[in-house]
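User: structure tokens for this one?
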Amino acid sequence: MLRSPVRLRHDDAELARCVAAGDGLAFATLDDRYRKALSRYARTLLRRSEHDAEDIVQDVLICAHDALRAGDLPDELRPWLYRLTRNRAINEVRRARWGDESLDSEAIGARGEREEPDAVLRRKESVRRLVEDLADLPVSQRTALLARELDGQTPEQVAEQLGVSVAAARMLATRARTNLIKTRDARDADCADVRAVLLEAHERGVRPSEHALRHLTGCDPCSAYQRDIRRLSKQLHALNPLFGLPLIGGLAQIAGGGTKTAVVSATLAVAVVASGGIVVLNSAVHQPGDPAPFMLLSIRDSQGRAVKKGGAIPEGFTIVSARIRLPAGPSTMPRHSRAPYPAVTLPCPAGMTLDGLQMPNRSFPPSLRRIGFSSDSIPGHSTSAQIQLGHHGLKRAFDMTVAIDCRRPDANGSISTNPRKLKPGERLAHVCNVRRSAQLRSSPDGKPQGSVELGAPVAIQRRDASGAWTRVAVDGKLAIPGWMKTSALCP
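Assistant:
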């Protein structure tokens, strides 16, 4: 009852000024006015449960409150809040790929209520695909395009934001548009044409065209067709005893027979632990120099190229993988936020640290909603990873591969590609006790000047008199000093 007068009396600009002045009732009004709308918007972008969208919006509102209290008043409150929500949601889509599902929001725009149901569904699917395509863009391209198209920034403003030349800012936006168009065209390509390209590439023993590969990322039937081509070749080779013997040896390696990978796994004593009814079929450890068992996402060779299946695993990396089976049955999605997911825990070899999640599978059942690290699996800090898997019911069992890559830290304990050299008196730490990122301020009571992602390494320089704030430098080429809450750092 106390909120209505405030809502009627203040416009958004005045409301933002009241929040900046420390008016708690004003922030409650802002929350009440925008939370539901932002949650609907987040759900159209996330393709996940209502709980996930609410988590995003909660973080956005907290960041907005901190920014307003710090005196960073936007020109217009409403588009600013939507922009924060959009950027956070796209980052979440990029961080982890989840099972394919339709959008569950009631409307994407105000006009949705007047449209035919099939038109609304088509438009929802179009938005969902655009968000996925945006999430797949390199960060610099995505930032440049969204800043130009949605935030109305000039090339000069984009260049300043990214720290590049004006010409480079224009080129980034152009490349982003080009890649989005190529992805859309490839997705809409005729499956018969794509399969002909796949078959010809297989016959010639060459890599399929970029157009065909882009199509495969969004087309399960064509991906299955490519697997069928490869499977048929293996079956035909097995008919010849000269080829069948190596094939049998390969199968023995997967099953844990006396091959190099099996011996390494036993030597390193890797123990895979599963919960929630998940069955571990086999596991393996792939060391530097071994052939990569699948394409390694985010790992580059000495020439800076992506490591493809069969390519040598670069020095310093080890891949730990497990073939698992999700049993058929009802939903395994938790009923509340603290309930556990079914999970598989993969340990890194001794002396190595978790670096990232690998996704060997190209397609998943539509009901699979959750594939990702648990909150206590921190890249750069943890020595094992718990991979959570949740679904809304499986009609039949589903076999898949889960994998992580581990790295050996340098002398300072960092796995960063471009680590910051610690100065005398500094020590390395990691950001752990935050949901997604920790805010970095110019001083304990100063303005926000950026954020540090979960798991990021930082160099501790000193703490304030209270011990509640710690001055840190961010690991990497750009060592930006700032203050963050001590509670955000790993103990």
